[in-house]
Amino acid sequence: MAVRLLTLLLCTLSLFAQEPSPGKRVQPEADRYRDAIRAADAVLETHPNDVEALHRRGESRLGLGELAEAEADLRRALELDPGHKEARFLLASTLELQGRGEGAEVEYRRLLAAHPADLEASVGLGALLIRRGEAEQALPLLRRSAGQAPDHFKAHLFLGRALAQANRLGEAVAPLRSAARLRPDSTEAHYQLALALRRLGRLEEARLEFEIVRELNERNRGTGMGMGPPRRRP
Predict the structure, then answer these.
(1) How far is CA 38 from CA 5, 20, 56, 75, 231, in A?
(2) What pLDDT score was predicted for residue 222?
(3) Closest CA to 93 of 136, 125, 138
(4) Do 50 and 79 form a contact (C-beta atoms < 8 A)?
(5) Contact residues for 209 (Cβ-Cβ < 8 A; gap 6+)
(6) CA 194, CA 47: separation in Å to the nearest integer?
């Protein structure tokens, strides 16, 4: 039992390692996910029904883009523990990344049926509905989420996008500004804000936001995007 708990701890630390001290070599994120998979494998070899090991391995496989394998692990975890919130959220995210929007919606709604105030599920479902062009359905979820968590970047970003998609441009500016304030380095937040301002005819404000987008693109050129599965806030 002690060895099993230690292995799971190492698995978790592989996923949520602290920022290294200055000058310390950073382990590539993909390597951390592989280490976590190996740690989970060690647990599952002797405890094949360990829900947390299945969840962690599924999360790590999702981080590596191994979507079919991640789905299998997460579904197995949910067979063993249907109430596992994190596994269900990650399964919904995995299905969405596979282009299986209907399946993702089913999982988000199952999570919300059990936990109506779940912030990440509300934002995830709202974002999915926006991508399908169903802004009016997304708005109640995203308004509640942004009110529930004033510092939640994605809640404000997707609320602004939903309002803009619903042609409520005057209302869209405030949440988009909040998103840009919460994440000043977000190209998407500044870009969506610039689009809304331009559609409103506020051209000088739009120009300034487009300039920020240009500067961020220049700064980020060649840096690439970090890998990783969607994260639930604590």
Answers:
(1) 15, 22, 11, 19, 21
(2) 61
(3) 125
(4) no
(5) 180, 190, 191, 193, 194, 197
(6) 52
Rounded distance between C-alpha atoms, residue 175 and residue 28, angstroms: 34
CA separation, residue 43 to residues 58, 60, 204 (Å): 14, 15, 58
Average pLDDT over residues 103-109: 97
Q: Cα–Cα distance between 163 and 176 in angstroms, integer?
A: 10
pLDDT above 60 (res 28)? yes
CB atoms within 10 A of CB 12: 16
Output 9 or 206, whichever has higher pLDDT.
Answer: 206
Task: Answer yes or no: is pLDDT of 154 > 50.
Answer: yes
Distance CA 143, CA 150 (A): 11
Residues 6+ apart with CB under 8 A from 99: none
Cα separation, 66 vs 229, whole angstroms: 11
Relative orientation angle of helices 153-165 and 169-182, to the nearest 10 degrees? 160
Cα separation of the two ends of the chain: 27
| Percentage with pLDDT > 90 across the chain | 81
Instruction: Determine contact, residues 70/59, Cβ cutoff 8 Å.
Output: yes
Query: Is the C-alpha dihedral spanning 113, 142, 233, 157 positive or negative?
Result: positive
Question: Does 22 have pLDDT greater than 80?
Answer: no
Residue with tokens 């590539």: 28
